Amino acid sequence: MKTIKLFFLISFIYTSANAQITEGNWLVGGSGNYSSQTFKFDNGEKEKRDVITIKPNIGYFIKDKFAIGASLRYEKINRFDIYGGGLFSKYYFLEVDKTFNLFAQIHYDYVNTVSPLERGDTSISSSYYGVRVGQVIFFNSVVGLEFAIEYERGNLGSGNVDNIKAVLGFQIHLEK
After folding, report:
1. Which interval of the chain is the signal sequence (predicted)?
2. Measured in Å, how far apart are the chain's first and last C-alpha atoms?
3. Which of 98, 103, 109, 114 has its CA 20 to 30 A from that of 12?
4. Cα dist. 117→41, 79, 120 in Å?
5. How many domains would you assign to the chain?
6. How confident is the model over 29-35, as a mean pLDDT?
7. pLDDT attached to residue 66
């Protein structure tokens, strides 16, 4: 009985999914991830930190399968808070009517890091840029769930950080 229910569920998802990745449509959603990073500082020191990142976004399809947009960024790294925003472009590789699709995304984020110290808060501005590749599963004509791998490099005031992350995203595709 469970096999029959699973078959009908998969059939329903497959037949009802019609991705809205066509020119003139909007993309609203976000992504999040958890990572454990090793920071390498200019003075040779290394430090391991746990990082939680949340990135809401909004985009617009300027052509079929190609969107550009903006995102906000919040990260919590041990005792540091990072706030920022950035730009992205995303391209879907398969046809627009596929239930599953592959995508690639590049982004640039400008961020401000706030750190509590004994003599008050300090603030450092920096930037991140990265590449994300993954797969999206469209549950219907509007909702997509993304699974991706991302490489990101950050230029910090006291050094650089390189990250490889597994990212989970949720997107809503709004029609014209």
Report:
1. 1-19
2. 41
3. 103
4. 18, 10, 5
5. 1
6. 92
7. 97
Residues 6+ apart with CB under 8 A from 140: 13, 16, 17, 18
On average, the pLDDT of the chain sits at: 85
Residue 99 amino acid letter: T
What CATH number does the domain containing 138 carry? Answer: 2.40.160.20
Q: What is the pLDDT of residue 10?
A: 46
pLDDT computed for residue 117 by the predictor = 65
Q: Cβ–Cβ contacts within 10 Å for residue 60, how many?
A: 14
CA distance 88 to 66: 11
* Burial of 70 (C-beta count, 10 Å sphere; 0-12/13-18/19+): middle
Q: What is the 3-state secondary structure (H, E, C) of the chain?
A: CHHHHHHHHHHHHHHHCCCCCCCCCEEEEEEEEEEEEEEEECCCCEEEEEEEEEEEEEEEEEECCEEEEEEEEEEEECCEEEEEEEEEEEEECCCCCCCEEEEEEEEEEEEEEEEEECCEEEEEEEEEEEEEEEEEEECCCCEEEEEEEEEEEEEECCEEEEEEEEEEEEEEEECC
- CA 153, distance to chain mean position in Å, is 14
Residues 93 and 18: their CA atoms lie apart, in Å, by 15
pLDDT of the residue at 159 = 72
Joined together, the tokens standing for residue 33 give: 């991830």
For residues 110 and 2, the model is more confident at: 110
